[in-house]
Design brief:
Mean pLDDT: 91
Radius of gyration: 24 Å
Distance between the termini: 67 Å
Structural class: mainly beta
Number of helices: 3
Largest sheet: 5 strands, mixed
Strand content: 35-45%
Number of strands: 28
Shape: globular
Strand order of the largest sheet: 3-27-26-25-24
């Protein structure tokens, strides 16, 4: 009887050893013991928490460098990484950055291909948005619909596609060489875009149809039902679309030369209340509600990405994140990825979450 019981226990032990779930759990526990500083995401990916670093802008503007811990991601297997989920409300309690990134060090064709990723403005909650861009050599422009459901990108030459996070469907809007500008309607139904030089079109998210449009769009713009506010090469312009009339023009200093007036960097806040334009020598902050222009010489921080009420801004390279509190003149900089490379520039979406504040606590 004792021999039978021993054999049974031995058999159970062997079964446990051969159980894939048990083996995975043991491997996970072993990794945790060997690398207590790592938080694993799947079997091959992890992140560690590292302190932010000193940021040098090379300008006279004095910013208080802030130090706190942010995630640094080590992504080797994108297939194991959680995808952005519209039904997960916890992902949308802060504004989010979106960007195209590739594991350029990988020899695997899938892993080294460009994919679109997103994360909260505090660096947490990295998500894979879509791998539909894997065959592209570059992503030149990105935009996200106001309802967060659709992400559109322009590849090399201006070829444009849209990915539906809800259905997983990819729609090719435009397959020919064209300018890069794209702009969503307020209700997320239409995506307006350049389909050729001085020619515009719109994609209908409900029907999938592409039709001609008379609306001249810019990526740095906000479109509501009856109004568009857009940043041009040297000004911010508002139009009443219903009445077909110009509402205002807020210009950079017309007494300057064309080289001094033209914007190399431009952005607009999520509501269109504030806009930014700058070049090597001058910076301008536009308040479209008060109809004011603040001109700065040298001692300013460029706003490649501008948050609600111009409270926060960011540089657009998300592998090394730099965000600025423009109200309190604070700056945070940290390395979001251990390796890999971005294509194009990052953008902001879900920008009104948390009342537009990018950090939950002011640290």
């Amino acid at each position: 009887m004792k021999k039978i019981l021993l054999l049974a226990l031995f058999s159970i032990t062997l079964m446990g050893c051969n159980d894939p779930e048990s083996a995975a759990a043991e491997a996970s526990q072993l990794r945790a013991e060997q690398h207590p500083d790592r938080t694993y995401v799947g079997e091959h990916n992890y992140y560690i928490m590292e302190s932010s670093e000193h940021a040098a802008f090379g300008r006279k503007k004095e910013l208080k460098v802030m130090y706190q811990d942010f995630p640094r991601y080590f992504v080797e297997k994108a297939k194991e990484w959680p995808k952005e989920d519209l039904n997960d409300a916890s992902s949308y309690d802060l504004p989010r950055f979106q960007f195209a990134w590739a594991n350029s060090s990988s020899k695997d064709g899938y892993e080294s291909g460009l994919k679109i990723w997103s994360m909260k403005t505090d660096g947490t909650d990295l998500r894979l948005v879509t791998d539909a861009t894997i065959d592209l050599t570059a992503v030149r422009n990105l935009t996200r619909s106001p309802n967060n459901r659709y992400v559109a990108w322009a590849g090399s030459g201006g070829h444009k596609s849209v990915y539906d996070l809800k259905t997983g469907k990819v729609s090719d809007m435009h397959k020919f060489t064209s300018p890069l500008d794209m702009l969503w309607s307020e209700d997320s139904r239409y995506l307006y875009f350049d389909d050729a030089i001085n020619s515009y079109a719109r994609w209908d998210s409900e029907t999938g149809e592409v039709s001609h449009s008379d609306l001249k769009v810019r990526t740095e713009a906000v479109l509501t039902e009856n109004k568009i506010i857009k940043v041009t090469d040297a000004a911010v312009v508002g139009y009443n679309l219903k009445a077909n009339e110009r509402l205002f023009v807020l210009s950079s200093d017309r007494s300057l030369s064309d080289k001094e007036r033209i914007f190399n960097v431009k952005s607009i806040s999520p509501t269109g209340r504030f806009a930014w334009g700058s070049n090597q020598d001058y910076g301008w902050l536009f308040d479209t509600k008060k109809q004011t222009v603040k001109q700065m010489v040298d001692d300013f921080v460029p706003a490649q990405i501008l948050g609600k009420d111009a409270h926060y801004s960011a540089l657009s390279k998300m592998t090394y994140v730099t965000i600025v509190d423009r109200v309190e003149d604070k700056v945070w900089s940290w390395r979001a990825f251990s390796h890999g490379a971005m294509s194009g520039e990052g953008i902001l979406y879900n920008g009104l979450a948390n009342d537009g504040l990018w950090l939950k606590e002011d640290k």
